[in-house]
Amino acid sequence: MDVLIAGGGIAGLEALLGLREVAGERVRLTLVAPDPDFTYRPMAVAEPFAVGQAKRVPLTEIAAGAEIITDAVVGVDDAAGQVRLEGGGTRAFDALLIAAGAHAIEGVEGATTWWPGGDSEAFGGLLRDVEEGYSKRLAIVIPPGAVWPLPAYELAIMTAGEAREQGHDDVRITVVTPERTPLSIFGPDVSTAVAEELERAGVQLITGAVATRAEGGGLTLQPSGDRLDVQRVVAIPRLIGPAIEGLAADDEGFLLTGEDGRVQGTERVWAAGDGIDSPVKFGGLATHQARVAIAGIAKLAGVEDDLDPGEAVLEGRLLLGSRQTRRLHGAGDHDGAPLWWPQGKVSGSFLPRWLAEHDFAPPASAVPAPDEGIEVRRPVRALAEEAQQLFDIRRQYRIADPDIAALGRRMRALQSRPR
């Protein structure tokens, strides 16, 4: 059976490796991805601080034995079993998994937009301004909507530490977030610990607020209308969906799926990862969604065993640097290492194992000691209320994008440029 996987990120590769293992010769695999490499980002947040970097793995290594097409799927005809490629032409399929991911766009107008997949030099320039004494008042903003907030807190704590190391005790850093509490989806223990870490680092925290650029500089905070006087603003991006023609999607391009991972209104199309309409964007959730799709596709291919993807769980460990030593592979004991374990922020059954076996990621035996940090294990269903609150704020304050599909094409082009 011809199985086409659109997307060379976490969800797509988890599905490819999983189908190869559970379906074997029952499937012929084709991977369509706009970038010839998979970017593994365990230390990307540390790149601006020169204590780590993202790793790039050629898809030909991970997807050995599969056909690889460097392109992007922009249209799907489920009835005809055919996709349309951005570079021109079509491709047939018996089963299709869309794992195209989400596209990062500006979270706050005029701000420096940075995320672990972005250009580390963008944040590096701000750090140089801090070092040279040009920037004293910084805001790090989490926009409303579909976002992954953890990097904002890592950047704030690491930037505060960097400023102190450079002898600048007068640098004021403020985190602005629409969350009720910091990292609220991880539960009260994590929220309390992050708030304490921010306070210890001298970082101000403003919760329940949406930041927009104010006339004359600085930020306006909604709904209070208060003004925040800052010189520089860094925002993690807002995310939009892939908006693929022929597939059901919401008004921001996120694909609509059922609990079985199948795209609404289709028979042979599944979707997984950041590009679907789940309000929680997390690598470990993307691998779970991929395993849900694997179960459906394998059954279609004639695999008789019922494959149980398990419950969707957000899990990991928050490492508290100033209270305990951070023991992260590749970072030594540097206190600027990211806060979260696993350091790649990815748990799964197939891709993390492949990365560990090929020395791209630490093995399971390298996990922190049980008494180090705060263990997080929350069923995704339990996150629904908090995630929905962020989604509702997005709908209240978002700035409408007139053409999500066109914007998505532009972002794909930018993200797939040769490096």
Automatic annotation (TrEMBL):
<dbReference type="InterPro" id="IPR036188">
    <property type="entry name" value="FAD/NAD-bd_sf"/>
</dbReference>
<dbReference type="GO" id="GO:0016491">
    <property type="term" value="F:oxidoreductase activity"/>
</dbReference>
<dbReference type="InterPro" id="IPR023753">
    <property type="entry name" value="FAD/NAD-binding_dom"/>
</dbReference>
<protein>
    <submittedName>
        <fullName>FAD-dependent oxidoreductase</fullName>
    </submittedName>
</protein>
<dbReference type="Pfam" id="PF07992">
    <property type="entry name" value="Pyr_redox_2"/>
</dbReference>
<feature type="domain" description="FAD/NAD(P)-binding">
    <location>
        <begin position="1"/>
        <end position="276"/>
    </location>
</feature>
<dbReference type="InterPro" id="IPR052541">
    <property type="entry name" value="SQRD"/>
</dbReference>
